[in-house]
């Protein structure tokens, strides 16, 4: 006990850099194991296997158009005034398998995606033949004995050759890829029914404070709506987490303990709280966690979000973000997102840093500052950035208007207009 008290005193005294705090927190987590899930459920999940193409794609040469499979040499002199007439020897809808060889002077009607018959080396689109009815924009339905071709085609034209996209045995995806709808479509085209992905990080989410009410409830003077519950819920979902429980805690140690105990029954990978862990007289979340675990209150050299709590409750890691919504948001991006990425075996840190030119003088207090900003990339060669809205850490509206965070490094109290600064664009912050 005396050990954890002195640890705490240390952490309280020392001002940790953002990097130190990140490393300490991330060091407590290891990538989750993998499971096989149905392909349809795989969107946004992180691949835990290498995908090697089991087939060529396409797996057979096929027609890229509705038209006629021909020998290109037969139609090289075709024009609208001197059409070439070919004898039709077959009709190949998509899904059929042609066997008949196309000889010189012959053709077969063919639909998009149908296999190219042996002997043919090109396809003449129906629009270039007398089988097309331009005024109705459709083909003649009945197959006749001959077709008149009005334009030449080059060898291979309108043919999708076997293996054009990739060959059997090629590496398609590496592990660690976050699956997009396109990726899942490709896996389906290769015949996969399931895919091996990392388990989703499971999180128990808590807001805390007697002043908090849920939207839909009446507000009395002094009360506010619980914004963090919704803000953090969205951030967690966007970063691939599964939320096991969401609760708003009153400032009552008995209820807090009951709620935490209920939440850990479903075995979260960590507990995420906001507020209630500062030095206030009613910050009971901290007290309860310290009764059944430990919680260090760190002073991180950043703005907003200096108070950050990290510890564990009955063996489950706890991250305590500050109560002010903008501080919570920044704290999530800087400390929680890297945990979620590591658990899913994604690169631990992803901040897409861009250098932009300040359009006004900006000042802070010397802490590493994440200011709400507007990034203007009208001229991509020279991105510009200026502050957006009121910088108070409770002001969510300014955050919604910002499209970037402007980062002033620690030790820098002000920068003049024209200086180059680091900017963290928010549109693709979670990838
Ligand atoms: P605390 O950390 O409890 O001292 O809270 C700091 C500030 O954040 C106070 O003004 C709280 O009212 C506010 N706050 C705490 N939790 C929330 C929340 N879930 N939604 C909106 N504001 C909050
Ligand atoms: Mg509070």
Bound molecules: adenosine monophosphate, magnesium ion
Strand content: 25-35%
Helicity level, as a percent range?
A: 10-25%
Question: Strand sequence of the main sheet, in spatial order?
Answer: 1-20-22-23-19-15-18
Number of domain units: 4
Give the CATH topology of the largest domain. Answer: Molybdenum Cofactor Biosythetic Enzyme, Chain A
- What's the end-to-end separation, in Å? 41 Å
How many strand elements? 30
Helix/strand class: alpha/beta
CATH architecture of the largest domain: 3-Layer(aba) Sandwich
Mean pLDDT: 93
* Shape estimate: elongated
CATH class of the largest domain: Alpha Beta
Number of helices: 8
Unreliable spans are: 1-11
Indicate the radius of gyration in whole angstroms. Answer: 31 Å
Q: Biggest β-sheet: count, sense, barrel? A: 7 strands, mixed
Would you identify the CATH H-level superfamily of the largest domain? MoaB/Mog-like domain
Question: What would a concise description of this structure say?
Answer:
With 431 residues, the protein is of the alpha/beta class.
């Amino acid at each position: 006990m005396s050990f954890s008290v002195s640890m705490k005193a240390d952490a309280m005294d020392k001002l940790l850099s953002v990097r130190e705090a990140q490393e300490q927190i991330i060091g407590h987590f290891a990538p989750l194991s993998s499971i096989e899930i149905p392909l349809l459920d795989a969107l946004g999940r992180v691949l835990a296997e290498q995908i090697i193409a089991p087939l060529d794609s396409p797996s057979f040469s096929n027609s890229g158009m509705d038209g006629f499979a021909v020998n290109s040499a037969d139609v090289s002199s075709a024009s609208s005034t001197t059409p070439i007439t070919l004898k039709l020897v077959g009709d190949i809808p998509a899904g059929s398998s042609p066997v008949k060889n196309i000889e010189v002077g012959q053709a077969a009607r063919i639909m998009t995606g149908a296999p190219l018959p042996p002997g043919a080396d090109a396809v003449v689109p129906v629009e270039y033949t007398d089988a097309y009815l331009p005024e109705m924009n459709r083909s003649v339905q009945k197959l006749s004995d001959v077709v008149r071709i009005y334009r030449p085609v080059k060898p291979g034209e309108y043919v999708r050759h076997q293996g054009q996209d990739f060959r059997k045995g090629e590496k398609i995806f590496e592990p660690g890829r976050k699956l997009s709808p396109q990726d899942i479509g490709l896996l389906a085209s290769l015949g996969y029914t399931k895919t091996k992905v990392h388990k989703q990080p499971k999180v128990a989410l808590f807001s805390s404070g007697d002043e908090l009410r849920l939207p839909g409830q009446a507000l009395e003077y002094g009360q506010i709506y619980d914004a963090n519950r919704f803000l953090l819920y969205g951030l967690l979902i966007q970063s691939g987490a599964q939320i096991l429980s969401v609760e708003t805690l009153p400032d009552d140690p008995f209820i807090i303990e009951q709620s935490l105990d209920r939440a850990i029954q479903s075995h979260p990978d960590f507990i995420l709280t906001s507020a209630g862990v500062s030095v206030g007289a009613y910050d009971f979340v901290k007290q309860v966690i310290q009764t059944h675990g430990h919680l260090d209150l760190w002073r991180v050299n950043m703005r907003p979000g200096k108070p950050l709590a990290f510890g564990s409750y009955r063996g489950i890691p706890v991250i305590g973000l500050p109560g002010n919504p903008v501080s919570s948001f920044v704290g999530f991006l800087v400390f929680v997102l890297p945990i979620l990425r590591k658990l899913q075996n994604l690169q631990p840190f992803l901040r897409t840093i861009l250098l932009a030119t300040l359009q006004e003088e900006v000042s802070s207090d010397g802490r590493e500052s994440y200011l709400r900003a507007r990034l203007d990339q009208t001229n991509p060669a020279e991105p510009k950035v200026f502050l957006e809205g009121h910088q108070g850490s409770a002001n969510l509206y300014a955050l919604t208007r910002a499209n970037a965070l402007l980062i002033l490094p620690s030790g820098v109290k002000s920068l003049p207009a024209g200086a180059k600064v680091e900017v963290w664009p928010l549109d693709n912050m979670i990838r």
